[in-house]
Design a protein that fits this description.
Length: about 500
C-alpha cells in the first residue's frame, strides 16, 4: 500500500507537471505565432504587387510628371520674330593714307569696302501666349517695340503675319493679332493673386530660339520691385528663363496662365521675373480697343516711409505711402489731401508702401469715386475723391496718328501742366515728340524724343490736333517745316518726303 500509494502520488504529480508544461508551451507558441505575424506583415506587403492607383497632386504641388501639362499647354505658346530698323552705332571714319604705291593700294582697297548704312534692318525674337481663339497674342512690349514686321510661329510650325494692336511701355505689355479661318489654341487665364511662395510653376518659351522649351520651378517671391517702371509688381521664379523667353508663359499646376515671363538677372542663376496675369487682365481690353491704356490719376508725389521718417513723423510703423507733394489742381488737391499725409488704404485695400499705391490708382476707371484712408498728424481720416486721367496717356499711337503725319515718323502728345512744369515752360505750348520711327524722315532730320514742336509750317501749335490741321492745310504735301525747341534752344527743321 505504501509503495502503490507512492506511485499514485508520483503519477498525479507527473501529470500535473506535464499539463502545466503543455499549457505554458502553448502560451509561448501562441505568443510567438501572433508576434511573428506582426513581424512578417511588412515583408509580405513588400513582396505583394501593389494595386495601381492614380496619383492626384494637391493644388500647388508638382505631379510626378509634367508631360501631360506640357503637351496641353505648349500649343498656346508662340515664337515671335521681329524686324526692326536700327541706327548704325557709328560711321566709318575718314582715313589718311601714306603717299606712294602702297598708299594708293590701301586707299583703293578701303574705298571699295562696303560702308555701314545709316539705318539697317535688325532681327529679334521672343515669345508670346495666345489668349483668345480668334488670335489675340499677349507678349512683352520690348519684344515688338519699333517693329517693322512681326511674324508669329505656332508650335505646329505654321507662320502668320501679326499686327501690333496695342502697346503699354509702363507695364511692358503688348497685344498682337493673327488671323486664320480656324480657331487658335488659347491659354486659360488664372488668378495670380492666389499664387503662394513655394508653389510649383512651369515656364514655356523660346530661349535662344529653341522653340517650345519647357522648364519647371517654384514661386520664389511675389511683389518684387526691380526698377523696371512705376508699376513694378513681379513674380520671382527659379524656373529657367533666358533671352528669348520674354513674353512667354508662366503657368500653374492647373494649366492656367499666371504670368508673362519678362526679365532675368544676367549675373544670377534661377532668378527670373514675370508680370502677374492679374496686371494684364484689365489692360488687354483697352489695348485691343484703343491701342493704349488710360490710367487713373491722383496727382500726388509719394515715397516710402523709412524707419527714420516714421520716427521723425511720430508714426507707429512704416506702413503706407507718404505724400511728398500734391499737384496743384489735381484730384488729390481738390479733395484736400496735403503734403505729409500718409495714405494707408485705397478703396478698402491696404497700401503697404509707395509701390502698392500706383497700380491701385492706375487700375481705377477715370472719373470714378474712390475712398482714400490716410493718416494726418497721427489721426486716421477718410476722404472721397474723383479719380482723374493720368496726364500724357493720349499718345498718338499707330492707330490714332493721322496718315498725313504718320509718313513723317512722328509720334506726338499734348503738353500737360506737369509736363510744362518739368520742361520749364511758362504755359502749355507746343507738342511733345513722344517717339520717332527709325529710318523715317523725322529720324533722318535729327528730331529726338522729348523735342518740343512749337510751329508747323510757320503756324503755332498747342495740341496734336493743331499739328494735324496744319499738315492737312499744307499745299505742298511732300514738305514740312517745323520749329523745334530742344532744352533752351530753338531751331527750324525742314522735312522732305522721298518720292
Amino acid at each position: 500500500m505504501h509503495i502503490s500509494g507512492k506511485k499514485i502520488i508520483n503519477s498525479r504529480y507527473f501529470k500535473a507537471i506535464t499539463f502545466s508544461t503543455l499549457a505554458i508551451s502553448c502560451l509561448v507558441i501562441g505568443l510567438l505565432v501572433s508576434s511573428g505575424i506582426n513581424w512578417t506583415r511588412p515583408l509580405a506587403a513588400q513582396t505583394l504587387t501593389p494595386k495601381p492607383q492614380v496619383a492626384v497632386a494637391p493644388p500647388g504641388a508638382r505631379p510626378d510628371s509634367l508631360a501631360a501639362l506640357a503637351k496641353k499647354l505648349s500649343p498656346s505658346v508662340v515664337n515671335i520674330k521681329v524686324v526692326k530698323m536700327e541706327k548704325a552705332a557709328f560711321d566709318q571714319p575718314e582715313m589718311e593714307f601714306p603717299d606712294g604705291q602702297f598708299g594708293d593700294l590701301f586707299k583703293k582697297f578701303f574705298k571699295e569696302m562696303p560702308r555701314m548704312p545709316k539705318n539697317y534692318r535688325s532681327q529679334g525674337a521672343g515669345s508670346g501666349v495666345v489668349i483668345s481663339k480668334d488670335g489675340y497674342v499677349l507678349t512683352n512690349n520690348h519684344v515688338v517695340a519699333g517693329a517693322k514686321e512681326v511674324t508669329v510661329t505656332l508650335a505646329d510650325q505654321k507662320e502668320y503675319k501679326a499686327k501690333v494692336v496695342g502697346c503699354d511701355a509702363k507695364t511692358d505689355l503688348a497685344v498682337l493679332k493673327i488671323k486664320s479661318s480656324q480657331s487658335f489654341p488659347a491659354a486659360s487665364l488664372g488668378d495670380s493673386d492666389q499664387l503662394q511662395v513655394g508653389d510649383w510653376v512651369v515656364a514655356i518659351g523660346n530661349p535662344f530660339g529653341l522653340n517650345n522649351t519647357v522648364t519647371c520651378g517654384i514661386v520664389s517671391a511675389k511683389g518684387r520691385v526691380i526698377g523696371a517702371g512705376p508699376y513694378d509688381d513681379f513674380i520671382q521664379t527659379d524656373a529657367s528663363i533666358n533671352p528669348g523667353n520674354s513674353g512667354g508663359a508662366l503657368l500653374n499646376m492647373k494649366g492656367e496662365l499666371v504670368g508673362i515671363n519678362t526679365a532675368i538677372i544676367a549675373q544670377g542663376q534661377g532668378i527670373g521675373f514675370a508680370i502677374p496675369v492679374n496686371t494684364a487682365k484689365p489692360l488687354v481690353p483697352q489695348l485691343i480697343s484703343k491701342g493704349a491704356v488710360t490710367r487713373g490719376y491722383l496727382g500726388v508725389n509719394i515715397q516710402s516711409i523709412t524707419p527714420e521718417l516714421a520716427k521723425a513723423m511720430n508714426l507707429k510703423d512704416s506702413q503706407g505711402a507718404l505724400v511728398a507733394d500734391v499737384v496743384a489742381g489735381g484730384p488729390a488737391d481738390q479733395a484736400g489731401i496735403k503734403r505729409g499725409d500718409v495714405i494707408i488704404a485705397f478703396n478698402g485695400k491696404a497700401v503697404k508702401d509707395s509701390h502698392h499705391l500706383p497700380p491701385m490708382v492706375a487700375a481705377t476707371p477715370v472719373n470714378q469715386q474712390a475712398a482714400v484712408t490716410l493718416l494726418r498728424n497721427g489721426k486716421e481720416q477718410k476722404i472721397s475723391l474723383k479719380v482723374g486721367q493720368l496726364p500724357g496717356e493720349k499718345t498718338a499711337s499707330a492707330q490714332s496718328v493721322h496718315p498725313a503725319s504718320g509718313k513723317w515718323g512722328l509720334q506726338l502728345r499734348d503738353v500737360t501742366p506737369p509736363m510744362a512744369q518739368r520742361l520749364h515752360l511758362q504755359k502749355e505750348q507746343g507738342v511733345v515728340v513722344a517717339g520717332i520711327e527709325p529710318g523715317s524722315r523725322a529720324d533722318d532730320a535729327g528730331i529726338q524724343r522729348g523735342d518740343l514742336i512749337l510751329e508747323v509750317n510757320r503756324q503755332p501749335v498747342s495740341s496734336v490736333k493743331d499739328v494735324l490741321k496744319n499738315i492737312d492745310r499744307s499745299k505742298d504735301k511732300d514738305h514740312l517745316l517745323l520749329l523745334v525747341q530742344r532744352q533752351d534752344g530753338k531751331f527750324f527743321v525742314p522735312l522732305k518726303q522721298q518720292g
